[in-house]
């Protein structure tokens, strides 16, 4: 991810326009890979909440032979769309 990327993440309870901050778990910069938790504690990622979206529809079918039993269930995961506003190192 980089600055100004728009991402869909699992739903968070923030209002549209709010700013959220989290810690990265892996940083790659010009071929240098940082995955050590002590070094990553100095990095923060900030993003602006753009709104809520829904993922693709998933259909679940259950069927049992010779009994007439069939059941259909659908699911759509809720996501939050965010725009990355900054990646900072302390």
Automatic annotation (TrEMBL):
Cellular component, GO annotation:
cytoplasm; ribonucleoprotein complex; ribosome
List the InterPro entries.
Answer: bL21-like, bL21-like_sf, Ribosomal_bL21, Ribosomal_bL21_CS
Q: Which GO terms fall under biological process for this protein?
A: translation
Biased-composition ranges for Basic residues?
A: 68-81
- Its biological purpose: This protein binds to 23S rRNA in the presence of protein L20.
Sorted UniProt keywords: Ribonucleoprotein, Ribosomal protein, RNA-binding, rRNA-binding
State the organism of origin.
Answer: Nocardiopsis aegyptia
Q: What is this protein called?
A: 50S ribosomal protein L21
Family under the similarity heading: Belongs to the bacterial ribosomal protein bL21 family.
